[in-house]
Design goal:
- The complex is a heterodimer of chains A (272) and B (374).
- Chain A has 272 residues and is mainly α.
- Chain A contains 11 helices and no strands.
- Chain A has helices spanning 2-31, 47-54, 56-89, 96-108, 111-125, 131-156, 159-167, 172-201, 204-209, 217-226, 231-271.
- The N and C termini of chain A lie far apart (54 Å).
- Chain B is α+β, with helices and mostly antiparallel strands and 374 residues long.
- Chain B is built from 8 helices and 20 strands.
- The longest helix of chain B has 18 residues, at 178-195.
- Chain B is globular, with a radius of gyration of 25 Å.
- Classes of the chains: A mainly alpha (272), B alpha+beta (374).
- The complex binds adenosine-5'-triphosphate and magnesium ion.
- Adenosine-5'-triphosphate binds next to β2 and α1 of chain B.
- The site of adenosine-5'-triphosphate has 12 residues of chain B, from β2 and α1.
Chain lengths: 272, 374
């Protein structure tokens, strides 16, 4: 009886984990495959990692992707923050509802539409397509995500902090820089990281607005895979998984330290 | 030292003038045509129930809200259109609003830094302020590492650091427990006396207002009901509302039956079997509907019949609340009216001098009651 009841949850748990992680585990295992066939194990080897590091095309694409992602994340964070702040702080101005709707529309807009629309715009104004067009297109949609995250934080922010700063003589711009931005910092970091990943991840929009000579990593991977999955791509995937895991670990560590600091503060306060 | 009598001298030019200030939020009137004059060095209280517009009035003084009508003068200067960061006025917020990412020292120095003071002077002033509130040892801590009382003192130091002409305090002690609150009240009064800064304190606690203030303005529904010293407001309330809001009071509805001159008045109330014979300070026509307000401590309670002939009646003890230094009696009059009486516990005894359901005599003097005609 006892066995039977505890067996089922364990099985469900295992199944859940398998569902989530089995594909990734298989990817990692086959990145160390000595053979060229993706689905047949032919012994352990790290040769695909070596080849990856010499694959000019992939390295160039990775560099392009990272540059776009960084510029995109930075600009989207600045614009998204200003937009979110304006929407929740400057009261009811004319057209506020419309503006709010417009700002969050890209959240639900299918990528195909965003891609097509931005492509039409660039063609219309005769802008040469390349890295800049991909960056601009990415900003238009990741901006909305940043705005949503920052807005939640702004509305949770105690407005009397800003009022106190102004009361003590800080002008509005200074108040924004020395009080508001530090208070919003966690949301800004989260927004930046989200915008960064969204851009790094995007295939559809980039495919629409990319020009010759500006291929992002997802575009290169996708075109390679169409010709058959190469073990090199497995190696690349493994590296990315490693990078992501590292980021999560660092974030968790920072969070843990903050939590401990908070607890220490609380105890110190209680001691008086 | 501040000249404590200045606010009784109507000829002196007031330091703060609030002239016919009204604040509307949409159609809602939060502050309704308020006029007040406050003198230099006063510790002035705004007292009123929740939602009566105290914070709104204070925020207009700080410049965080613009009056819909009227104007506000500080030291002769019209401040109505001056933004908060250019006003010689500082505010201590109800939530303290300490900057969580700065140390205590940085919080206190924040205002000074905005004025481009030399760093040396900033340090000296911040130190002086922390000494004033006795937090020298906490300069390097963050607000999260402080107790509620310490945070309150940091907020006070921060708002005083710029030597403002006027300091506004929004329920400064509301977040403290009773014991700490009483102790801090005296500290606040000390600091106010030491610095000589004019304070306006918002509170909904009438005891706190009485303890702290040179004068009190009683507010209700955005309107000032009465302005006066604590004893004026307590002993001479001008309306039923003020009488009832400040302290506890017994109100007897009745009408004037005789008023031989401007000082003496006789009032008959259905609620009491006897007539009130009182000294009034206003002229009252015969037949006027009035209320007699008598504070619980101004009524004497005894088992034996007192000597006096007038202002005396019988009752039965309904409820007794023993409070150590005094006892509160609730006495039921023959008509059913309940009267509150407080009497000091003068002798040390475990037995009650007056017990439940006992027949007692109540009496009061001609000065005891206030006649309210509103
Ligand atoms: N920004 C605003 N918009 C609309 N109504 C407001 C605004 N600020 C205050 N009010 C209203 O004005 C009235 C007075 O508010 P205020 O904050 O001045 O009350 P208060 O006397 O300080 O009360 P409390 O003791 O609860 O702090 C309230 O009814 C409140 O709902
Ligand atoms: Mg308030």
């Amino acid at each position: 009886m006892v066995n039977k009841t505890s067996f089922l949850p364990t099985l469900t748990l295992l199944f859940g984990f398998a569902f989530l992680y089995a594909p990734i585990v298989i990817l990692i295992i086959f990145s160390f495959n000595a053979g060229k066939l993706v689905s047949v194990w032919a012994g352990f080897s790290t040769q695909w990692y070596g080849e990856l590091l010499h694959n000019e095309q992939i390295l160039r694409a990775a560099w392009v992707s990272i540059k776009i992602a960084v510029v995109n994340a930075t600009i989207a964070t600045i614009l998204g923050t200003l937009g979110a702040y304006g929407l929740s702080r400057f009261g009811a101005f004319k057209g506020r509802t419309l503006f709010t709707g417009m700002m969050t529309a890209p959240l639900v807009m299918p990528d195909v539409i965003t891609g097509l629309a931005t492509l039409l715009l660039f063609v219309g104004i005769g802008w040469t397509r390349g890295m800049s067009t991909i960056t601009i297109a990415h900003i238009t949609f990741s901006l909305a995500f940043v705005a949503v995250i920052v807005r939640a934080r702004v509305s949770a922010l105690d407005q009397s902090l800003e009022e106190a700063a102004m009361d003590l003589g800080a002008r509005p711009v200074k108040t924004f820089i020395v009080i508001t931005i530090p208070m919003l910092a966690p949301a800004l970091v989260a927004g930046w990281l989200l915008a960064f990943t969204l851009s790094l991840d995007d295939l559809v929009i980039a495919s629409f607005v990319a020009g010759p000579g500006a291929s992002t990593l997802p575009m290169v991977v996708f075109s390679k895979v169409r010709l058959g999955v190469s073990p090199e791509i497995n190696a690349l995937g493994t590296l990315i998984v490693l990078l992501v895991a590292l980021c999560i670990a660092v974030a968790a560590w920072i969070f843990h330290r903050q939590e401990q600091e908070r607890l220490r503060d609380q105890q110190a306060a209680e001691r008086g | 030292m501040v000249n404590k009598s200045s606010w009784f001298a109507p000829k002196e030019v007031p330091y703060i003038c609030i002239e016919n200030v009204t604040k509307r939020f949409g159609g809602f009137v939060a502050v309704d045509n308020v006029s007040l004059e406050i003198h230099r060095g006063e510790l002035f209280s705004l007292l009123g129930p929740s939602g009566c517009g105290k914070t709104t009035l204070l925020r207009m003084l700080a410049g965080l809200e613009t009056p819909s009508e009227g104007r506000i003068l500080v030291d002769g200067q019209d401040t109505t259109n001056i933004p908060p960061y250019d006003r010689p006025v500082n505010m201590m917020f109800q939530s303290y609003a300490l900057f969580p990412h700065m140390t205590v020292e940085k919080n206190v120095a924040f205002g000074l830094r905005q004025d481009n003071m030399p760093p040396h002077d900033i340090d000296a002033r911040a130190k002086e302020m922390l000494e004033l509130v006795q937090l020298m040892n906490f300069a390097k801590r963050k607000p999260a590492q402080l107790s509620g009382g310490q945070r309150q003192r940091v907020a006070l130091a921060r708002s005083l650091a710029k030597y403002p002409k006027l300091l506004l305090l929004d329920e400064p002690l509301a977040a403290l427990d009773k014991k700490l609150r009483e102790q801090t009240q005296f500290e606040l009064m000390n600091i106010q006396e030491k610095t000589g800064v004019t304070f306006i304190v918002v509170t909904h606690d009438q005891e706190e207002a009485m303890t702290l203030s040179t004068r009190i303005a009683v507010m209700n529904d955005g309107v000032i009901r009465q302005v006066g010293t604590p004893s004026e407001v307590y002993e001479f309330p001008n309306t039923r509302y003020v009488a009832d809001f400040v302290g506890s009071i017994n109100l007897f509805e009745g009408d004037v039956t005789d008023s031989p001159d401007t000082e003496h008045v006789t009032i008959r109330s259905e609620e009491v079997a006897v007539e009130f014979k009182l000294d009034a300070f206003v002229e009252l026509p015969i037949g006027a509907k009035v209320a007699v307000a008598i504070r619980p401590e101004k009524i004497a309670i005894s088992k034996d019949k007192p000597e006096q002939e007038e202002n005396i009646c019988r009752g039965k003890v309904d409820e007794i609340a023993y409070q150590g230094s005094l006892s509160i009696y609730q006495v039921e009059l023959p008509g059913g009216k309940l009267v509150r009486v407080t009497a000091p516990n003068l002798t040390r005894t475990a037995e009650r001098p007056i017990d439940w359901d006992e027949e007692v005599w109540l009496c009061w003097g001609r000065h005891a009651g206030v006649v309210l005609s509103d």
